Amino acid sequence: MMIRKLLLLLLPGLWMPMAAQQPVPGRFIVEFEGAPAIRDARPDRRRAEIRAERQRAEGLFRARGARIRASLDTVLNAAVVDASDPETLRRLPGVRRVTPVRVYELFLSRALLNHKAAEAWDLAGGAENAGKGAKIAILDTGIDPRHPGFRPPEDWQMPEGYPRVSEPADENLALTNPKIIVARSFDGQSARDRDGHGTAVAMVAAGLRHESPRGPISGIAPAAYLGVYRVSNLNDGLIYSDVVLQALDWAVKDGMDVINMSFGSVGAAPSDEDPLSDAVRNAVRAGIVVVNAAGNTSGPMTVDDTASSEFVLAAGSNDAAPENLTQVIPSVGLPAPAQASSNVQSHEPVMGPLVDAAWFGDRLGCRPYPQDALAGKIPLIERGQCFFHEKLANAAAAGAPAAIVFNTANPASGSPEDLITMNVDDNPTIPGVFIRNSDGTRLKEFLTVYEDLQVTLRFPSPDAQPDRISSFSSGGPSVDLRIKPDLLATGSPVYTAAVLGERGTCDICDPSGYATLSGTSFSAPLVAGAAAVLKSARPGLAPAILRSLLVNAAQPFRLSSGDTAPVNSAGAGMLDLARSMKSRLAADPVSISFGAAGPDVEQQRELRLRNLTDRPVTLALEVESSDQVRPEVEPAEVSIAPGESSTVLVRFRALGLAPGPYQGFLKVREVEKHPESAEDPGSAVPKPEGRAAGPRAEGEGEGDGDADPGPEPENRSGPLQEVRVPYWLGVRGGAPQALVLLRTSPREPRPLSTVRVYFRIHDRAGLPMTEITPRVAPVSGGGIVRGVSRTDAFPNSWMAEIRTGLVAGPNVFEVEVDGRIFTFRVTTSN
Questions:
Q1: Which of 269, 184, 186, 270 is nearest to 233 (CA)?
Q2: For 148, which DSSP code?
Q3: What is the pLDDT of residues 213-253, one digit of tens each?
């Protein structure tokens, strides 16, 4: 099969249609018997064995008119072969499977705020340590190394053993620096980005902090290294699966820690039938976290094939909230931009007279105030010495309705003009806002001049919170009925890097070097960069644990209606890197699917919970759902020793269920408190081995050590953080609910041309309807329907063959199923 994987990108105002699922003629992936090197105890010896085996096989291939284009030995024991007859290849001795090459088409600002990046950076010892030492592989269209997001300061050092490049060596070596440590391409031309997509994606994941035309900009893991693997074809802009497999093979051999793939195609087959999924699974077993964009085709069962794998983090997209309107508005002078404390989602404005905390003997607000000294007043407090929640708690105890904290002149991390989110989640008190040092000192000066200085604290309104899943974000379940995507990250709109050049000279080129873009292409690198920050700050954790920390610590995603988003639209919720950094409980699996069922259900699944602390914990489990019918958890309470795991059963038993989805979350929380470190109330992250910890920031405690699936827990005694594991059951039946357009071929038809339209009909549970007979008829545009038939191109799908009208423009058709009418259009151009 050939899947046109779109680099999952939406330019403003541009919808890129889903690409084709058709084979590349004469090109195949031939997998051989025997494990790849990554699954052998002695990988170097195994690679030598595979090379010898391939040399012996080469003669057999040539004798049958076939040619080996490339060989893989690490993530797969396979070769890319040109041949006219795949059956001839399948009959060769030692051949396990032959798969046609598929082709994939190419699919920051507020995003970092949404995902608590600044708070996570503080926990990591500052932005200069966020992702430090971690290596992120960007499989994409290459990179523009001239961009300031990829030009490190002079004190950066190339890690030992790097750079690593492919041919043409001189050209690719010129792309590297102490930030870009790998540059590989697979077609004899350099990895320089001629499209812009790879540059934009790399910036979101790990771009360096710098000034852009709109102000400071940064990737989510600014201290991470980048490995660039150009997998796009320069001639047609497509991405072929055999090239992706070669890139994966090299990414493992190059020592990458995280792999990002911002391309995909609508789900066509179960993940265990895809060589790319096998390769990804082997990469994960080697200790790599793999992130894939969920896809840009909305509707049920549209998540990309590879993203559907249980081993892959599938990132869907949420829309960014409107601009943050949090402000401090004094009765004289200009308003000051502010950032609300973490316990504020939305809040009515708070007004009152401003007072200086220094008037009470402690400018830092770390000591108690006299009783009722702040009744009705708003204190102005300087950052430093104690935790943010202590500052707010002291102010609240003295009667303050809210508090302002301003940045110190010499903060432990970042600059005095940074806005950060004050972490008070563990001790919610009164609302607070954080302002810049310059604005804080200006207000202090006003207090020396004006006797009655009033301030209004303006907080976000509910409309300022992300509450929409992007209209293009692909949904689940996957073809093999897993909950997908795993989580959401802000993908629309995203302000990021572009290739430096005149507009129109490439897809994402701009003389400013920046562009505003949308697509799950940018959700994925946010998650990939977050994985790098997490892996750097908490070394030694296995990919399965890192996946759980990212997914199961996600924030619930609330829609504007107040309802929690469906799990097959939002997964566990929205990425919250700060919570992931602090969480000390991992779940396996990260979500529980009971699959498809009839009205009577009796199923059970196992959920394994791992205690990552150095103390025993007692956990309570409960089900959160708006459904009346819910699964049960046995036991409902469990105790786990330090560094150990425990398994619970999740049972779904019910009779006579109505058709539709049954979904919710298993909430796991600690119920028995143990003595905690006096200096660490829950926001510490262990210091990674191999580097000194950064300066201690407020909200950050001490700690060291590491954790992995072995017996040694992290040296950590703080709270576990509540985790949430999504579950889903789909009960078949009922009326049709959704039409999903899977592909039109050709993609850009002309008038009076024959077009094949592939589609699926889904029921209320999101499951494909098989016992249906759709009727397709023209509505407008002059097109005609030549026939409708089942097709094997996609599971449970139909193909309508149409003839477009005489005049260029939209041809509208209707699909009628069981009395329900859906429409689709095919637009032609001359």
A1: 186
A2: G
A3: 767 889 999 999 999 999 999 988 889 999 999 999 999 99
- Note whether 113 and 12 are within 8 A (CB): no
Give Dmax over CA atoms of the chain in angstroms: 95
Q: Which of 820, 697, 825 is nearest to 749 (CA)?
A: 825
- Residue pair 479/268 in contact (Cβ under 8 Å)? The answer is yes
Non-local (6+) Cβ contacts of 248 within 8 A are: 75, 139, 259, 276, 279, 280, 283
> Does the CA dihedral 357-360-362-368 come out positive or negative?
negative
Concatenated DSSP letters of 463-495:
GGS---B-TT------TT------EEEEEESEE
How would DSSP label each residue in 526-546? HHHHHHHHHHHHSTT--HHHH
**Six-digit token string for 21:** 């699922």
Please, what sign has the CA dihedral across residues 694, 699, 703, 709? negative
Q: Nearest CA to 740 among 643, 619, 822, 634?
A: 822
660-670/637-640 β-pairing? unpaired
Q: How far apart are the first and last CA of the chain?
A: 30
- 585-634 confidence digits (pLDDT tens): 999 999 999 999 999 999 999 999 999 999 999 999 999 999 999 999 99
Contact assessment for residue 281 and residue 309, using Cβ atoms and an 8 Å cutoff: yes
DSSP label of 436: -
The model's pTM is 0.76
